[in-house]
Automatic annotation (TrEMBL):
This is Rab-GAP TBC domain-containing protein. The lineage of its organism: Eukaryota, Metazoa, Spiralia, Gnathifera, Rotifera. PROSITE patterns: TBC_RABGAP (PS50086). InterPro entries: Rab-GAP-TBC_dom, Rab-GAP_TBC_sf. GO terms for molecular function: GTPase activator activity. The keyword Ribosomal protein does not apply. Keywords: GTPase activation. Residues 1-139 form the Rab-GAP TBC domain. Pfam families: RabGAP-TBC. SUPFAM superfamilies: Ypt/Rab-GAP domain of gyp1p.
Length: 139
């Protein structure tokens, strides 16, 4: 799912995401909000929303205002807790300087150096740092 989809342009959905991410940041002051957490929230939101709509409805263009306030709150709460649970195991990726991601990128660099020395040398000769391209892969 892309944040550019029509459903994510709805004010109600944007406010729902904003509340979830704000509360998560307040409850986790060591990291606060870090870019990329919203990407983890997207699939949970879609899964919990799907419970309340018919299978033949296109989720991308679904008007969330057609759901009751109660159902929207259920989706919001479930999305928050599922995202929180996921982040418990990978919170190092989302703290200052993102040590979890830094570690993964270094591990990738060491692996490439061992299994494909010519590629590793080429990247180094071109002054290409692994962090420049692998950060998004690990995020």
């Amino acid at each position: 799912m892309s944040p550019l989809m029509a459903i994510f342009q709805q004010v109600v959905v944007q406010e729902l995401f904003e509340r979830i991410l704000f509360i998560w940041a307040i409850r986790h002051p060591a990291s606060g909000y870090v870019q990329g957490i919203n990407d983890l929230l997207l699939p949970f939101f879609a899964v919990f929303l799907a419970e309340f709509i018919n299978n033949d409805v296109d989720i991308e263009h679904f008007n969330i205002d057609s759901l009751s306030e109660s159902n929207r709150r259920i989706i919001e709460a479930d999305s928050y807790w599922a995202t929180s649970y996921l982040l418990e195991g990978i919170q190092d990726n989302y703290t200052f300087a993102q040590p979890g991601i830094q570690y993964k990128v270094r591990t990738l660099e060491e692996l490439i150096k061992r299994i494909d020395e010519p590629l590793y040398r080429h990247l180094k000769n071109q002054n290409i740092e692994f962090l420049q391209f692998a950060f998004r892969w690990m995020n």
